[in-house]
Amino acid sequence: MSQMDEISVEIDDNIDKDKIDIDKVNIANNIDKDKLIDDDKSHNGKTITMIEISQNGKYLVTYSEEDHSIVGWNIEDVDEGQLKLDHTVEPVKLRKKEIEVDLHKMCVSDDKKLACITFITYEYGSKKREILEIYNMNNHQNIELDCHLGYDYYYFTFNLKGELILYGDCCEKKIIYFYSTQIKNNKWKCKKIYEIPKDFKLISISKCNKLYLFSNNSIYEWDLITEKEIKIFIDEEFEYDDHSKDESKQRRYIKENITVFSNEKFICTRIKDKIIIYSIELEIPIDSLDINNVNQMCIPMKHPVLCPLLFPLFSNIPSSGFWDSVMENCREKCLDHLKQYDQLPKKYFNLPNNIRAASKYAFGILDGDVCKIDLEKLISNVNSLLKNSDELNNSDSDDMIGHWYFDNDFKINKKTYAYENLNVHLFNSYIMDTIHALFQEVIPDSGHKERIEWDYNDNDYNDKIELQVFRDLICTKLKNNQSFMCTEVDNFEPLFICTKVKNLEPLLIKTKLINRNIITLTDMGLFIYHFNENDKSISLNYYYYMDFISIDQYGDRYYYYKKLQSYKKLFSKLTLPLPNYNSFKFCDEWVSYVKDEKDEKSFFKYDTELLMFAIKEHNLELVDVIYKKCDKESLLKYGVELLTFAIENHQPKLIDDIYKKCINYFKEDLGNNRIFLSIITSNMPLLNEYYPEYTLKYSLETIMIIDSLFYNKEHRNNDLHLYSFQYLQIVDLTRSIWWLKYNALMRKLKNNYKSTFQILSFIQELIILILFPIWFVTCRILLRFHFIFKIDSYDNIFDTYVNGYLDTLFLFQKKTTPSIITVTFMNPYIKFINYPQNYNWVWELINPQPNPFAKTISSDIYKTWSGEALINFKWNNYGKYYYAIIWIGFIILLGCFTAVATIPQEYINEGIQKQLLVASIILGSIHLSFEIRQFIYNPIKWIHDAWNIFDIIAYLFPIFTAIYWIQTKDRNVHLLSFSCLFLDIKFLLFFRAFESFGVYFTIIISVAKKIISFVVVLLIIIISFAHAFYILLSPETPETKISFETYTNINDLNNPWNLVPTYIQVFENGTTNSNSFIIQKPDGNTNMFTNFKMALFAVYLFLTGDSRALSNWTYNDNSTLAILVVLFSLLIVVYLMNLFIGLLNIAIEKDKVSYLIQKAEIIAEIELFYLLPHQRRWYAWFPEVIHYYASVDKTREKIKEMISKGEWKTEFPELKQNLLNELAIQSVDENSLQQLLKEIQSKL
To answer: What is the dihedral sign for C-alpha 592, 595, 601, 606?
Structure first.
């Protein structure tokens, strides 16, 4: 029997569906008509111990530990009345018989698929095991998993798509499985598999495919879809034995002490009695709350954005000060108006446990019953508690409430990692509901094009709004007066509110009054005013400009209808949209009001938007005012834009202030504030261009830092020095699904068809033994790319051999690879390699958006380990693979062209020859297209790179030669020779990506750049001598009249016929014939000074030691020639050439930084022109944060080297001191060190 069959599910036929009923029991004011299930009917009168709701809140299941039964309930659209028992399914009862069954966890989907993890104990307690069961409640059948191997599972859930996500063990691996719930042959198909690192413990899995993990006192979120890692929170004070060997105890400890819930805006985490709220937008923890502190819990709990996240965090805790206060306040009020439930015992007013929240309601277990909790009424009760609290009233709670339209200022001390005046953009549900209703009233049905009636009173306020509402207060604002005047009256009187908007004539559309808030919709925007009873004032709390055209421009109102529809959609979201640019542009009165120092609350609500307005308007004065008042939230949201503005407008004081703020905020909380460093790194291209000193300063100050107070040292392989990685490394094992299915099939055969299994095992072993070398290589490749992995099932021979191979390989590496002690550092270049997330896929192919890494190729970055580790990360993840593909493509081009150019014609027929030429044209054009894209992208940068010029020549020559050959049938050997030359050298240039070769290529380029001026001087001198020799030695006869075939006897000493050797006849008596007997025929080299081009070449030959060009003249007869030769020899050959060699020797130095810059340029080229646009957004390749290992011994050497050079900065004194202590290096005082260096320099 398989392990899936060891525990089963049966239907309890004894339950009478017709007798099932539910009693109404009202718990408290925060539980509106809360319902308790009548357990006497649903679970045979036994108490409920566990509940779960489906992923979209449509279905609820309850479990009774005493009855071992599971019952389903319909909860969709249940706003009033009792919970509805699902009569379409039979209750599920766990079979006991000879085994004892305890339900460990369960979850249910919207379509009534039930998954359970049960802990079973066999008879006499001989064996215990956790078993997974999946049950279709619609047809009462068990569902199997196609990749199930019988290993333990510890957690599961259904995501929003209805897929099952499982977490369990598989041969000491922590595996996440994705299963599609589309049933085929009563099985669910596995779609994805991931492996979690051993050092990480799973907390939970959200329905949005996000893992929450715990490691090293930190909580991480990993998005399984985007592969993005978020470090939510780090708490050095959290007590946890991370080295405990008992995995079950670790899981139980984490389950009891850590809980996480999240939505699209926030992640709320409970660690024991502390709750941390993390902002996804800001990427930092924004609040830390004590669950026993009423003052801290009231404000966040009363808002619908946070309440569904915070409320479930109170599950499984007996009580807390906050909930005692809330329930006590609510109980008296509730019982007073629900007298029919006076018999309710006090225990029902305790906080429910096992709370599960849906969109509008939450469900929990209260004294063995299930209660339904209305979250809106819970929020209302918290508001009541807030209103009636004397302590909160004394702190001007009315102002606090009035400013919570969508934000609030959290004020927690520094020790709890929260930030004073840090705005969290929330909203008031009543305000939003009112705005939705307001738009609904003014927009006619889509099927009618009715005129919109305007409530508009056109008095003498041509540029102001006049609102008329009724209340027990009368408030007026004079046209030319900036203050409001309010007077109490006994009867209802009109209330006038005026706001000036320049260059616009306001037209009132609709207005509503709610809770001292006046919501006004006009054709120039939406206004929200708030009346404060404490100081009798009215304030404009919100304005959003709407782009309407004047009413007189259109005869009908269809245009307005379309506009209102678009704005209705904008305001239909859960939160108010932030004010747009025109909201400030067209309302000077509001700009002054927001930036007014007297109203800090309004400023902190809109400071970021006002800051963006000031930046766009290039208003330096307004930017300065806002920056002095802005808080950390503003700096995080728009710090990049602000620093960009400061650099482009050359504001060094503002630049330095922003830089110091970012560094200081990071120093305040190393574990949670690292995102502030991204403000600097995102602007690194501009800083490097205009203020390069900041690039060097940042590189040196942030070297060897970590996002923790303590450095982590471990034993690792010797080749991992400066190896970069993401701290959370989840491995995608999806390619190995077939391997799991194969093992599951072999296990099934072993259990049910032993003879077949033995035959197949014998065949497998025979194949492996015969093809062992091939199997060995294949196994290595499959393991490397995660097509297979170690399972330890021993149900098939292949798996057995794979395990043996891995064990042997591990022992071999352990013996042959020495281990070293490494220390882990964080790379300070946060978000430095990330590309913009908003992009057009097609346009990105033509003109890709660069990231800061591609735009900043600076030696100040790559002279530190941080820059080198960054290069290593990119190269190891994708760079080397793409570089190999490019190289292989070029080798194919080189092979095709070289073959057709080199192989003699008799050995290759014309057809093959043409095919090779066509292949060369195609491959060359592909390579050439990438060069053209680079030229279009940045022509100036492309031209300045010498390698690009050579590359395009290397591609153009073979293409042109091949086309010319095909068209003319002419094998031009001159073109072929140059083409092969450039292709061969281009092949050599590919070695520049490897350090052992690359340093010499960088020497070639760097030396050439250093001596270019000297070369120009030398070239001019050579040209000057060539010119002098040309004038002296050129023939008087025009070059066109000189013939090398016909003898010409003219009186020109420089004529080639007069320079060639002549032979005369010698008689036997010793006399000679005065007439020439034989004359040697001249050629083009006889007088190389017949034209200036050849004269230059002759002088170059003379420079190399070949003086044959001057040997046809006698120096005795031509003293001028002798003087020129002496001058040239002394000045050029002796002096300047030796000087040139000396300069080369000085310029030559092995500079690793130049090599890293060269490699960075190669990687940037691959990123921009070879990766597809979506690949540049993969978080696995382009993470926000990178860590790297460094050898402890090399780290000691590097620190000592930096200290000796004066580069060791102590910007992070505590952190750097901890590192020095870990490495046993004597601490260094920076001021003393600088003084010592000055003394040494003065003595030298």
So the answer is: positive
